[in-house]
Amino acid sequence: MTKLTINSVKNSKIDHVNFNELPFGKVFTDHMFSCDYVNGEWVNPTISEYGPISLDPSARVFHYGQAVFEGMKAYKDENDDIFLFRPEDNFDRINKSAHRLAIPEFPKEFFFEGLEQLLLLEKEWIKTGKGNSLYIRPFVIATQPAISASPAEEYKFMIICSPAKSYYAGEVRVIFAEEYSRSANGGVGYAKAAGNYGAQFYPTSLAHKEGYQQIIWTDANTHEYLEEAGTMNIFFRVNDTLITAPTSDRILDGITRKSVLQLAKDNNIATEVRPVSVAEIKEAANNGSLKEIFGSGTAAVINPILGFKHGDFKFELPALTDNNYSSFFKKALNDIQYNLAEDKHQWRHKVTK
Amino acid sequence: MTKLTINSVKNSKIDHVNFNELPFGKVFTDHMFSCDYVNGEWVNPTISEYGPISLDPSARVFHYGQAVFEGMKAYKDENDDIFLFRPEDNFDRINKSAHRLAIPEFPKEFFFEGLEQLLLLEKEWIKTGKGNSLYIRPFVIATQPAISASPAEEYKFMIICSPAKSYYAGEVRVIFAEEYSRSANGGVGYAKAAGNYGAQFYPTSLAHKEGYQQIIWTDANTHEYLEEAGTMNIFFRVNDTLITAPTSDRILDGITRKSVLQLAKDNNIATEVRPVSVAEIKEAANNGSLKEIFGSGTAAVINPILGFKHGDFKFELPALTDNNYSSFFKKALNDIQYNLAEDKHQWRHKVTK
């Protein structure tokens, strides 16, 4: 393994940042990590000043979307210690995504050394206090300058960081998809492939025009089963049972999703992981047993959904009661993330070097 | 409309290029066209020296695959006149693709003025003689430096050019897809969206390992119907009838495909545009009525397929006879493209300024 080169900046730009007003993903820290794949190996792991990268216009990422990413967060406790949440799962998943996109896997040592050294350099950017975090974006792009439609032989792996408040501002209502789809059987829906996201923008913009913020995607064959929301997995609370779709090659294996399922088990909340039909959710809405819908994801953590629309059917979820699940899971997850609660499952990863 | 700025190079690199050995899409001409979308309009149309572009690592194309492209070719006749083939269709399609990817449409005047001025500057790169052409790659990428998962507000439109021989070297055999898929109903399969291509690389690499060069994708629901090959539409000749799948939201509306259908009509060749089942093609293979399979696309023009595999079923197409369709359509298309035949349908577009 090549040694990590660190070129740290002399003057941080942190004093120019208003941490009280942080739009998601627009402000980046002082440094970035990068590493190149050339001649069959990952080389030049480097932390340097955050700034533009130069690519040939024929770089394959521009033409064929050969690119994958991850989303992670770093949290700080009251002692200024920095924690990651289940980072090995992000590492495993970016390589699973990479594999499906014919991108060479990234070595674990590079990933963790690059990531942790970067976080230690940026520690002032991680503010204490619940809701504050540093959003971390590892990603890999095909850089080879050649437009033949085949896997590239050159790539760049990078990690960039953006200080964050919570991801969703305002109220979230959703449309259950009836026409557009996110992914096919045998496709790349389970991967954090760049192309999965851009493909959702247009249908989501149509939802916006109707006053809905997100779409819950349904299976492309029948549009009868609810799958995921593109940036979130989705949970339904019917009476006291928590229901979510099983992962598949169409649905992202969300780290927050599986943490919620584990916490439910730990707290004797009944769960059902099975196909969830639009029909049963509409019936549960009609008969009063549908208590909550919420999304789970790294950026959003837990995001309650206030209402949904399917065709002409519109429904407003009831007001959340004191024992609502979305607040319970959000608090339980945050308490672990911010080192405020016992970490039974070793999900917390302290950053120390 | 802002005026086109042209900064031409002083010294062409053309003398360093071996036109007898041109790998597809690796050699680029002296200039490129670019244009930026900022503050709600396309500005700065510029032709400048071909070279790297600089982007923020948070540019949305890297993360969300918000990118579309086109493939076109310029041809030269013996009088050194330059011709495009149905370029209005490429212009219409890049905007159709852009629309689906929530990318602002590109103005027609910019497209044609940028393209034609670029071609006139690069006229020495377009060699006479059949098989020689200049492959043209218009593309649009989301450049806005912000990783929120929503449509970008800033884009770059570019045109780059690469001198080309024919796209496919060697023999092409295909696998009919049984597990992996290219696109979903309600997805982006009909668009030339970057992510559609990277998603095919891994399954195609598995085909390569078995000695097959391409995959003919089947419908994601049942894998019973043959759709397209990712970089080519597909035609089957059964007895003397030419059969191809109808376009849909899963299948690219290929310009070569529709030109083949028109030429078939002009030449009294029976065509059927309808779903084509794997079962019927295997039956036709078994009973001797399957005469040819070929792909059509801008890069390949017409590419005969020598054999296919579906599960354990392997079939070698019979040797092409003198009246084979693939050679007929290739010659008919090339004759129009190279200004060697009458252009009944006004497909040829002479580049003159």
From TrEMBL, chains A, B:
It catalyses: L-valine + 2-oxoglutarate = 3-methyl-2-oxobutanoate + L-glutamate; L-isoleucine + 2-oxoglutarate = (S)-3-methyl-2-oxopentanoate + L-glutamate; L-leucine + 2-oxoglutarate = 4-methyl-2-oxopentanoate + L-glutamate. It comes from the Bacteria. Keywords: Amino-acid biosynthesis, Aminotransferase, Branched-chain amino acid biosynthesis, Pyridoxal phosphate, Transferase. The modification N6-(pyridoxal phosphate)lysine is found at residue 192. Its cofactor is pyridoxal 5'-phosphate. CDD domains: BCAT_beta_family. Pathway: Amino-acid biosynthesis; L-valine biosynthesis; L-valine from pyruvate: step 4/4; Amino-acid biosynthesis; L-isoleucine biosynthesis; L-isoleucine from 2-oxobutanoate: step 4/4; Amino-acid biosynthesis; L-leucine biosynthesis; L-leucine from 3-methyl-2-oxobutanoate: step 4/4. InterPro entries: Aminotrans_IV, Aminotrans_IV_CS, Aminotransferase-like, B_amino_transII, BCAT-like_C, BCAT-like_N, BCAT_family. It is an enzyme of class 2 (transferase). Its EC number is 2.6.1.42. GO terms for molecular function: L-isoleucine-2-oxoglutarate transaminase activity; L-leucine-2-oxoglutarate transaminase activity; L-valine-2-oxoglutarate transaminase activity. One of its GO terms (biological process) is L-leucine biosynthetic process. PANTHER family: BRANCHED-CHAIN-AMINO-ACID AMINOTRANSFERASE, SUBGROUP IIII AMINOTRANSFERASE. Acts on leucine, isoleucine and valine. NCBIfam families: ilvE_II, PRK13357.1. Belongs to the class-IV pyridoxal-phosphate-dependent aminotransferase family. This is Branched-chain-amino-acid aminotransferase. The lineage of its organism: Bacteria, Pseudomonadati, Bacteroidota, Flavobacteriia, Flavobacteriales.
